[in-house]
Amino acid sequence: MSTVEKTQATIEDLYLVEGKAELVHGKIETMSPSGFRHLRMNDTIVESLRLYERSTRSGFACGDGGGFLCDLPHRKSFSPDSSYYTGEIPQNPDDFLPEAPTFAVEIRSKNDKGPKSLQRMAEKRQDYFAAGTKAVWDVDPDGPVVIRLYLAGSPESPLEFRRGEIAHAEPVLSGSKLPVDSLFD
User: Fold this and answer.
1) Alpha carbon distance 133, 46 (integer Å)
2) CATH superfamily of domain region 34-184
3) Where are any strands of DSSP class E within 4-58?
4) Is omega for the bond preceding 171 within 30 degrees of 0, making it cis?
5) pLDDT in tens, 88-125
6) Spatial CA neighbour of 132 closest among 71, 64, 56
């Protein structure tokens, strides 16, 4: 009887992928392109994070498609929709960032509905927190609750933000704010 070894994908393999992808369970998981609403919401969030970056002069606002490395048993990278990063910058600016973002934003796409999707998103949040991320926004464009802020210290008790309210990422990004309605302009 012969044994066939499965080859696990590596970070070096991830660098060769065109488009957005993550390395999970030894496999490269590609992500489909985003629709117009998703793009516009993400742009609004990144603009807000850039204003925060300029006002605090600590950390970096990051848009869609960036690679963040981590060293979890089953996950080696993240590629959030948008994020804020306060860690070390790699010597080669073309390399992935060497650790998880401080704050990550995941915007649900039109296919992110139902129990399986919600479970997958919950597992990814757990991965973020295990890798050192301190806060995660789950943005649901179709829900009555548009933004849920999950904090590493209380991951089962999110703060909820609806239309007409001002979302934030306190205490992680102290002073950050985003009018929820601006996501729908």
Assistant:
1) 17
2) tt1808, chain A (3.90.1570.10)
3) 21-24, 27-30
4) yes
5) 999 999 999 999 999 999 999 888 888 898 999 999 99
6) 71
